[in-house]
Write a sequence for this structure.
């Protein structure tokens, strides 16, 4: 199923389907390797639930919830 | 310079680029700034077989767009200063991200060598990289390195110099970005070539930058000729077409094409997974504790508190030595020179002024070592991660945390390195809000003043009052940041997309180099700015001297006392006391008569509203130079003679007994000192990090705010009592 990155459960492997941010944010996301087709896993959240920590290959990236909303991911799993 | 070879080091942040730089050049780096931006420029030298090699450490970047100062600087350097070779350091565990940057250097036609760094960690991940294959596909030298251990650096230098020696035309890498973009690129490139437009850059690269909407290239193009408008129209049309047919902007397609190219390249037998892929288990397990919801913040507090404990525990002794050294110097000068203006200038102006600041060096040095450990270990990024949400609600950024802490967020830092720590903030607006508010923190120079006032008026609750002051500083910093970000520096929050690098054990070498470099910057400022200000302040407190008739009067009084003593009317103790009293009243009269004294008297009516008399006003004016000056000036003004800021018990008793003082005055003064103009060195640092305009703003705005609050609190407090 396809959902915004923010909504996938912890440790659920997913694939980036699309990046909907333009301009600087879009560029920054892409520069870090968050590009369509990349495999990502949400592995944690900061104490106040924002930002999120995402595993991308062998590195860990962090982005705010609002920024994660610009990333839609595809994963196999049951709706929660 | 002409026969010297220049090599630039480039790479992603956290790729080990700086470690490599330190390995290559030793600790002999020259640190400066690139013109117009506050991006650090580090340069060093190395000699290979008699050949002098100039090494420039470019800022860490993920790409070569024009979105950040770092990227602009890196790009301008390779285009304009044309280094003979660019060495790109790549964290081999994130090979593809490094290669995407490499592709952008190749598109620009830069002579490139790749240093595949951290190869040891790649093996631990259960993977192997065929560097020979990579070199073959890309057609450039690739060297395996482990910069922390110095492995592979000799090979790297050899390859870079060989590449530098092979001067020949270098063809920029030509990638395919998809049919639509490729077609436009051909058209635009033809026009650019025909008009020899922006010929400093490869033509196809210029066209590509127009398609990517690169503001810097467009600005240069507009200045270069009318073709720019035409190219912009072509790029816009293409962008609209891409958006309509593919639902994506053209610049995203270009970026996706680079990632696609790299993914394909890596699949051509470059990377092989040997068995089961090992994740970075240790790092992730550490994060499970260190950034855990409840434990994370607690551990963070413990670490920060521990850091300051260490700073003060270890710094005290050497700081005492320095204090002793300056005291000895003062004594030596006093003994060697006759009383007079020159001696007063050297002792009160130069030694006391500069000594007061340099005396803090041990604390600063140890704190910088601590901060380097936090940075190099990867923990700093976690702090930003955990605090970003809180800071963002006040218009700041997760990366604002370090400037606040360094400036004295846990009492006892220094705003100068704090201001310099704002370099990690990419968003200009968040950076300015941080610059203006970080000096509110209880730095090591404000502490003696707080201690003095607390001892005098709140002796029953010393620790609690100091803690309240620290909390108040944080609250004010956050609230004022919020106010500024809601009014004059309004604007969207900048993205918080960043890497949490794997935890690594910092190397002693790296920590030493980082710590010493920053401390040296601090010392340099103390030696220049503070020196000038000290002399100025000394002059303001000394000139004009007492008119002759008044001076003669004091002299006459002294003569009377001496005569009485000789006549046996006064005991030895009595005559000394009387003489001291005369000295004090002369000092008082002199101070009142001096330029600073007159200024103090002039502003007294306004200062009175906040409860400050003219003597406090002088001290506060002096405090703009350096906050340490407040206590020493108060001491002089209240006629105690020499007051050591560290031992102000005598002064605190005097203030507690003075009719002009009350707990209300003390509260008002604490508020004022917390908020008013940053010290002069900090102002200079703010100007360097932003502009003289903002530095001036920090002087005026912070002082106005401090005055308004101090008056408000004092007036309301006086009404209630």
């Amino acid at each position: 199923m396809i959902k915004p990155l923010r909504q996938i459960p912890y440790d659920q492997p997913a694939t980036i389907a699309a990046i909907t941010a333009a301009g600087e944010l879009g560029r920054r996301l892409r520069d870090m390797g968050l590009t369509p087709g990349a495999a990502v896993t949400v592995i944690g959240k900061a104490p106040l639930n924002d930002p999120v920590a995402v595993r991308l290959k062998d590195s860990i990236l962090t982005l705010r919830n609002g920024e994660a909303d610009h990333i839609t991911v595809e994963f196999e799993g049951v709706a929660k | 310079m002409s026969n010297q070879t220049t090599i630039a080091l480039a790479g992603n942040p956290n790729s080990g680029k700086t470690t490599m730089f330190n390995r290559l050049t030793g600790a002999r780096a020259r640190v400066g700034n690139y013109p117009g931006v506050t991006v650090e420029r580090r340069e060093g030298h190395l000699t290979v077989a008699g050949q002098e090699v100039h090494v420039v450490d470019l800022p860490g970047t993920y790409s070569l767009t024009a979105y950040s100062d770092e990227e602009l600087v890196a790009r301008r350097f390779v285009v304009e200063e044309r280094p003979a070779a660019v060495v790109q350091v790549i964290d081999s565990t994130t090979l593809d991200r490094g290669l995407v940057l490499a592709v952008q250097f190749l598109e620009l036609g830069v002579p490139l060598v790749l240093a595949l760094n951290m190869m040891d960690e790649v093996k631990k991940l259960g993977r192997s990289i065929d560097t020979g294959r990579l070199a073959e596909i890309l057609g450039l030298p690739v060297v395996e390195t482990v910069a922390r251990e110095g492995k592979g650096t000799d090979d790297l230098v050899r390859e870079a110099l060989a590449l530098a020696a092979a001067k020949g035309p270098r063809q920029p890498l030509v990638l395919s970005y998809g049919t639509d973009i490729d077609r436009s690129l051909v058209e635009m490139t033809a026009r650019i070539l025909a008009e020899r437009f922006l010929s400093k850059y490869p033509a196809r690269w210029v066209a590509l930058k127009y398609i990517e909407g690169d503001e810097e290239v467009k600005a240069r193009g507009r200045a270069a000729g009318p073709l720019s408008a035409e190219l912009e129209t072509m790029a816009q049309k293409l962008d609209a077409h891409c958006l309509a047919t593919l639902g994506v902007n053209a610049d995203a397609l270009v970026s996706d094409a680079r990632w696609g190219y790299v993914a394909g390249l890596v699949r051509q037998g470059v990377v092989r997974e040997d068995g089961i892929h090992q994740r970075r288990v240790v790092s992730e397990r550490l994060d499970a504790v260190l950034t855990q919801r409840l434990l994370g913040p607690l551990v963070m507090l413990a670490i920060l508190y521990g850091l300051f404990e260490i700073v003060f525990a270890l710094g005290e002794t050497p700081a005492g030595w320095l204090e002793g050294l300056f005291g000895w110097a003062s004594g030596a000068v006093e003994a060697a020179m006759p009383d007079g203006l020159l001696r007063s200038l050297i002792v009160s102006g130069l030694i006391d002024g500069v000594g007061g600041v340099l005396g803090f060096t041990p604390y600063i040095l140890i704190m910088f070592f601590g901060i380097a450990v936090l940075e190099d270990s990867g923990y700093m990024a976690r702090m930003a991660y955990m605090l970003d949400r809180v800071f963002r609600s006040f218009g700041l950024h997760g990366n604002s945390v370090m400037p606040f802490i360094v400036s004295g967020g846990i009492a006892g830092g220094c705003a100068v390195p704090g201001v310099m720590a704002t370099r990690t903030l990419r968003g200009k607006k968040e950076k300015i809000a941080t610059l203006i508010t970080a000096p509110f923190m209880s730095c090591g120079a404000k502490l003696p003043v707080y201690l003095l006032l607390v001892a005098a008026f709140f002796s029953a609750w010393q620790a609690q009052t100091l803690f309240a002051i620290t909390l108040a500083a944080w609250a004010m910093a956050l609230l004022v940041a919020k106010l500024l970000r809601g009014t004059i520096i309004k604007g969207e929050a900048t993205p918080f997309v960043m890497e949490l690098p794997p935890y690594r054990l910092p190397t002693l070498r790296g920590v030493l180099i980082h710590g010493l470099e920053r401390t040296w910057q601090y010392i340099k400022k103390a030696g220049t700015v503070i020196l000038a200000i000290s002399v100025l302040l000394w002059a303001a407190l000394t000139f004009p001297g007492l008119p002759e008739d008044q001076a003669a009067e004091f002299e006459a009084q002294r003569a009377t006392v001496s005569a009485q003593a000789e006549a046996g009317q006064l005991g030895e103790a009595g005559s000394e006391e009387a003489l001291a009293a005369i000295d004090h009243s002369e000092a008082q009269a002199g101070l009142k008569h001096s330029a600073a004294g007159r200024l103090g008297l002039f502003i007294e009516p306004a200062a009175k509203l906040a409860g400050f008399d003219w003597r406090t006003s002088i001290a506060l004016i002096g405090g703009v130079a350096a906050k340490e000056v407040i206590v020493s000036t108060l001491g002089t003004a209240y006629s105690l003679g020499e007051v050591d800021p560290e031992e102000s018990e005598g002064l605190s008793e005097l203030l507690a007994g003075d009719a002009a003082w009350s707990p209300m005055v003390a509260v008002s003064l604490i508020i004022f000192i917390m908020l008013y103009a940053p010290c002069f060195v900090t102002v200079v640092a703010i100007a360097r990090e932003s502009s003289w305009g903002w530095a001036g703003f920090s002087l005026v705005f912070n002082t106005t705010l401090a005055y308004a609050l101090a008056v408000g609190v004092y007036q309301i407090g006086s009404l209630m009592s």
In short: Residues 179-252 of chain B form one domain.
